[in-house]
Design goal:
536 residues, seven-stranded parallel β-sheet, 18 helices, globular
């Protein structure tokens, strides 16, 4: 079939959940047998989110092919199981850089470079790119930001042009907000009307409206919005607050969102898919009553900073018939005097990834406490490196052991920078990024967990385990059980004598999805639950 295009825009305020809606639309179309992909176009000028502080933009998500992207791509993959690439994440910075590079190369033959047509043409080219592969029936494009933002204007113009060029093969879904004023006891549709008016002023008429709301909207409200915004009533859908984001696809299907999209694109609607595996997941989620507490030891007190880790743990908990209650433990506040008190309230610990000096000593203290008290512990990326440093200091006897990242002069650099990274000065996109192979040691705990001899996982780091110390670690009880076959770099360490003490140099959370939770998280949570029962 001819590829269809769905543009998802947002109005009134940011953070309404365009990523969740885009993911839900993708899931519903996928359940009907269509091949889908979802891409995110962000208006900021950064080339990618790789250098952004998590407080600015949440976690940086990494694709298999090594692109640092917006966290919404994590939602796309978790909901649909697709594997996104660098083509699925585009910023204004990448758009302008591509155009400027071509201008410097002389490709425009001396023409004056302008936002229209050159920038808008590049946006359009990027939007069409995935469709040209012939691999997809639907290309869903989410535009970041809010209608009316100055930086979004070129994207809106590009969409306006594409709507005309693609004709009946493209539609716009516009997500807006319907606030409830407690003092007046009324819901207000005026912000939505203004948002649609703003969109129309840019030459775009929304085909479908999704109304974000904290309270249920009666049919009269929906009809009013339809009348004032020139949208058919069955194309006005409400997205009210739900206990879990994973309930959104079912809620959207219940209101006929996927059917409305298909009608708008002149495609047969057919029978409503059962969404069997997805509903089974929700049933397990609702049926889980027992609670297990897992501490996240990190320095970013912001839930989006560790979004994929949080979701991977929640998913694993559900499949283990437990609700995972996540407890953030700020590593900057951990000291030898208070670590027992801070760890006491949780059943297991994840030592989180990150960059830089701040908060690392607290992570090392936490790693020592959980190791010496045999508390199930999972170290991810920098977390794994802190486990390695702690072991060197307190077991191998190297009190000054450290990472070159934290102490360039350390005489015991158990974590060191890769040789080919030493001359790199730029911060963005210069790490070991994306999926790399890893061979697992036969008989190791991780080989048992994965049920495989070789795996592929995604990376985002510059510093590595220093193989010079490998034999000392092995002799003292920390085993190097996973390594890259090409570079011989150590990827996984574990202490087999403990209940669950594993550190991974890679980011397994990126590969965990709703219908295929990651085996490391599944086994970690399962062990935490068993250990909790034994201690009771």
């Amino acid at each position: 079939m001819t590829p269809k295009f769905i543009f998802v825009t947002g109005g009134v305020v940011s953070s309404l959940g365009k990523g969740i809606i885009s993911s839900s639309v993708g899931k519903l179309l996928q359940s009907r047998g269509y091949r889908i992909t979802i891409q995110k176009f962000d208006p900021y000028i950064n080339i990618d989110p790789g250098t952004l502080n998590p407080y600015e933009h949440g976690e940086c998500y990494v694709t298999d092919d090594g692109m640092e992207t917006d966290l919404d791509l994590g939602h796309y993959e978790r909901f649909t199981g697709i594997r996104t690439t660098r083509n699925n994440s585009v910023t204004t910075g990448r758009i302008y850089k591509a155009v400027i590079d071509r201008e410097r190369h002389g490709d425009y033959l001396g023409k004056t470079i302008q936002v229209v047509p050159h920038i808008t043409d590049e946006i359009k080219r990027r939007i069409r790119l995935s469709a040209e592969t012939g691999e997809y029936d639907f290309v869903i494009t989410e535009i970041g930001g809010t209608i009316g933002d100055i930086e979004s204007a070129p994207f809106m113009e590009a969409i306006r042009q594409l709507r005309w060029e693609l004709g009946k093969d493209a539609i716009n879904i516009h997500l807006t907000y319907v606030p409830f004023l407690k003092a007046a006891g009324e819901l207000k549709t005026k912000p939505t009307q203004h948002s649609v008016k703003e969109l129309q002023s840019m030459g775009i008429q929304p085909d479908v409206l999704i109304l974000r709301t904290e309270v249920h909207l009666e049919d009269g409200i929906l009809q009013k919005v339809a009348n004032f915004c020139n949208v058919e009533r069955d194309c006005v859908v409400q997205s009210e607050d739900l206990p879990s984001i994973y309930e959104v696809p079912v809620n959207m299907q219940k209101q006929g969102l996927d059917a409305a999209i298909l009608r708008k694109l002149n495609l047969p609607v057919g029978e409503t898919p059962a969404l069997g595996p997805w509903r089974n997941f929700l049933e397990r989620m609702h049926g889980a009553t027992k609670i297990v507490k897992i501490g996240l030891v990190g320095k970013y007190d912001l839930q989006d900073a560790y979004k994929s880790i949080r979701e991977a743990l929640i998913q694993a908990g559900i499949y283990n018939d437990h609700k995972v209650k996540l407890v953030f433990i700020n590593s900057e506040n951990i000291t030898p005097a208070n670590v027992a008190e801070q760890i006491a309230e949780v059943d297991g610990v994840v030592i989180c990834p990150g960059f830089g000096q701040r908060g690392i000593e607290g992570k090392i203290i936490a790693a020592e406490y959980t190791r010496s008290h045999d508390i199930p512990t999972f170290g991810i990326c920098l977390g794994m490196q802190m486990m390695v440093i702690e072991f060197a200091r307190n077991v191998l006897g190297y009190a000054d052991a450290n990472s070159r990242e934290m102490d360039a002069e350390t005489p015991h650099n158990v974590i060191d920078i890769m040789e080919d990274q030493k001359t790199i000065k730029d911060m963005g996109g210069t790490m070991r990024l994306g999926a790399y192979g890893c061979d697992l040691k036969e008989g190791s705990r991780v080989a048992e967990i994965y049920g495989a001899a070789s795996i592929r996982e995604r990376h985002r780091h510059r510093y590595e385990f220093n193989n010079k110390y490998e034999q000392e670690y092995e002799n003292a009880g920390m085993k190097c059980v996973g390594r890259n076959p090409e570079s011989d770099l150590v990827e996984i360490v574990e202490i087999p004598n403990l209940k669950w003490y594993i550190g991974a140099q890679f980011h397994p959370e990126y590969s965990s999805t709703v219908l295929n939770p990651h085996p490391l998280f599944m086994d970690f949570v399962s062990t935490v639950i068993k250990n909790k029962k034994q201690l009771q």
